[in-house]
């Protein structure tokens, strides 16, 4: 598999990035952000995509999502989102589409790596110096995850649902995970896999993809996120 080829897999989580061309800004004000978030909420049902996490930055967005049935649903979903943002931009500002030609996507191993990607995406505003904490950034899924919004429509993966019996219990466990953060090797793996359209996960995940889908993806990087030293251990049987 060439490093520039995009691999989409049915029933597997993906870390997705769609960027604007250099120097372009996608979201100009709060209304632009709110419009895009509402489109994520509504269109995920249309295209049979579960959305686990997202963060909107001024010139791009990251998302963790799983397509069901047809893996191409994810691509159509992302295209529809960006087209609607472009139409709004043209209507309000008279500006053409800001997006790069292609989006990037990395299939993510369920278990620890999926939880690491969710944390990575929701911590981006802090890493980009856009907010002092993930909680204080309005344009990501983190505040919803904590139950601080009027509606809760995130599609929680099994790994996250196991953290507690209700939203507050799960939020408390994930808040601790976010405070612990990711180490440099985990971040390197996530970044490299995303920008090269490779797999985010262990060698076992590489072997799983080859056996199930007949696709060999050669990854380089750490084998798995470190195990947690507290009860909030997100590993499952696939990662042990």
UniProtKB/TrEMBL annotation:
Segments forming domain Transposase IS200-like: 9-124
Location of the region described as Disordered in the Swiss-Prot/TrEMBL record: 221-240
Regions annotated as coiled coil: none
Record-linked Gene3D superfamilies: Transposase IS200-like
Protein name (record): Transposase IS200-like domain-containing protein
Protein species of origin: Alloalcanivorax gelatiniphagus
């Amino acid at each position: 598999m060439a490093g520039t080829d995009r691999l989409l897999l049915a029933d597997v989580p993906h870390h997705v990035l769609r960027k604007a061309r250099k120097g372009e800004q996608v979201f100009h004000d709060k209304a632009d952000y709110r419009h895009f978030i509402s489109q994520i909420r509504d269109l995920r049902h249309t295209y049979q995509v579960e959305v686990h996490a997202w963060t909107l930055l001024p010139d791009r967005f990251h998302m963790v999502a799983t397509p069901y049935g047809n893996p191409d649903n994810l691509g159509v979903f992302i295209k529809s989102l960006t087209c609607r943002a472009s139409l709004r931009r043209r209507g309000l500002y008279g500006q053409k589409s800001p997006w790069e030609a292609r989006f990037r996507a990395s299939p993510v191993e369920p278990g620890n790596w999926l939880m690491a990607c969710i944390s990575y995406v929701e911590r981006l505003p802090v890493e980009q110096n856009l907010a002092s904490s993930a909680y204080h950034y309005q344009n990501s899924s983190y505040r919803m995850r904590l139950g601080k919004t009027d509606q809760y429509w995130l599609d929680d993966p099994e790994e996250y649902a196991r953290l507690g019996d209700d939203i507050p219990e799960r939020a408390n466990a994930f808040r601790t995970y976010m405070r612990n953060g990711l180490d440099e090797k985990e971040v390197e793996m996530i970044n490299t896999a995303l920008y090269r359209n490779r797999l985010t996960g262990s060698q076992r995940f590489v072997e799983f993809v080859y056996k199930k889908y007949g696709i060999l993806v050669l990854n380089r990087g750490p084998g798995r996120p470190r195990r947690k030293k507290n009860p909030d251990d997100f590993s499952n049987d696939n990662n042990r």
